[in-house]
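Render Universal stress protein UspA-like protein in 3D.
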Amino acid sequence: MFKTILLAYDGSEHAKRAAQVAKAEGEAHGARLLVVHVYEPVPDYLGEPFFEEALKRRLERAEAVLKEGLALVGLPPENGLLLEGEPAGAILEAAHGEKADLIVMGTRGLGALGGLFLGSQSQKVVAQAPCPVLLVR
Ligand code: ATP
Ligand code: MG
């Protein structure tokens, strides 16, 4: 039923559990599984040389998070998407671009507001996704 599954990975405990679910769903459906990680842009008001340095560090961190997500589902770098921008918007764009049939993500992420039932990125994706969304606690 699902041909392309998109796992949204931010390195959080919820996302780690989502990775296990995405891997199992991918195997059960013989689906192509992609892992997407989105990093927020570095504000350019930082100016040189801080901008370059901050950008380099942010990219390195983002690459490490994506690599970890890929390792959790046992896939090579080709199955990873590293995108810059606002997480929900970029996840939705990737879902459209890759024609995903299923998005798998955590109910919560790295955000500090523990009282919330659903993180803001999950809320936006659920509200606007072109396909079913599987939210993992
Ligand atoms: P908030 O970000 O609203 O403070 P939160 O961090 O707890 O709250 P979300 O950001 O909505 O909650 O995270 C829910 C899920 O969304 C995560 O488990 C992960 O699957 C996905 N996600 C969040 N941020 C990213 C990101 N930058 N890249 C990829 N996936 C992400
Ligand atoms: Mg978050």
